[in-house]
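User: Can you predict the 3D structure for this chain?
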Amino acid sequence: MQLPLLAALSAHGAPALAAACERPNRLRFSIIPRGDVRKEIADLQPLLDQLRAALGIPVEIYAAPSYGAVVEALLSGAVQLARLGPASYVSARRADPMLTPFANYANKASRFQPAGAFYHSLLIVRAGSAIMDVGALRGKRLALVDPESTSGALIPRHVFAKQVGRPLEAYFSQVGYSGSHTQSINRVLAGQIDAAFVGSQNLATEMASNPARERQIRVVWRSGPIPTDPFVFRGQLCDDLQEKIRGAFFNRGGPQSADVLDKLNVARFVPVSDRDYRIVQEIY
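Assistant: Here is the predicted structure, written as structure tokens:
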């Protein structure tokens, strides 16, 4: 079930503030909009089915319009479980130290994405362009993803900008936000912009659905490794619910099953904690 309005989420089944712990009569799950949200939700259905079976309560999806909307929903209690980006997780955790990361995933190896529980921020251009390196991008048009995107904004602004010795707005003639990794990739390929920062895992997923497009992309810059997107739950949830959520991810026959992993295009789920995101905390 998709609930487009945050107000609607808060109005139905929100836990009482006076409760010792939160025990919602339905679990609400959300994801940061990395690409085609409808496709991502469809791909998540096997995972949601596993959660419903483990918890014994309905599980609903909140299709958020932005990274910040997912964080807002988590902090307000309108959503109890979410997949965040590393930077949006760090931001949310500072506002609510009880927010608990418990899983991320290991990516499959591909042309743009090495195997492992990490990814990279990539600066991409059209392969047919004359742009062969970072120096050729001075004065060109750039797309970022979302202000809360790790690979699509945080790393570019804090790591790439430091390497080139000036803010992005001073290096490029135009800097804007596309709203998703998919939109950034499409705008590069359409010639609407000259370059974009995107996540290697997002680029790999997009290219897997249309392998012919791989030859149309050139990578001119790559960041160091970044831990993959964490799945987090509200620490205010009752302990037994927290354990059931963990169990749904890691018990045999749960999301580690081939159906779930294949739908999400990942190799396996990996247990994580807050310390796994220190590298992001240090630059954000």
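The chain is about 35% helix and 20% strand. The CA atoms of residues 35 and 182 lie 5 Å apart.
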